[in-house]
């Protein structure tokens, strides 16, 4: 009843390279020179870009290392929905916090 997972080493290496590239993108995004006049919105943009890249990295790890690509779609639904809700909550709290500082 087992599934043929194919060449898992190839999948692991693809995720490794993707994570390495996304980590470099995160570092690059943190160094983006937003104008100082932007103030808090520039900080919000830095954090938002970093969180968005982190969500992509989490999904890649879950898809391969948690073997979600071989699981039933309903199980994937129950895994990805909380990740989506957590991402929305993180972005919302980020914006709400900045709103409190600017108002």
Note the topology:
Layout: H1 8-30, H2 40-65, H3 73-102
Helix pairs in contact: 1-2, 2-3
Fold and architecture overview:
- The protein has 103 residues and is an all-alpha fold.
- It has one domain (8-102).
- It is 77% helix and 0% strand.
- It contains three helices and no strands.
- The protein has helices spanning 8-30, 40-65, 73-102.
- Helix 1 runs antiparallel to helix 2 (40-65) and helix 2 packs antiparallel against helix 3.
- The protein starts with 7 loop residues before the first helix and ends with a helix.
- The model has no long low-confidence stretch (mean pLDDT 83).
Average predicted confidence as pLDDT = 83
Task: Tell me about the largest β-sheet.
Answer: none
Specify the helix fraction band: over 70%
Low-pLDDT segments: none
Kindly estimate the percentage of residues that lie in beta strands according to DSSP. Answer: under 5%
Number of strands: 0
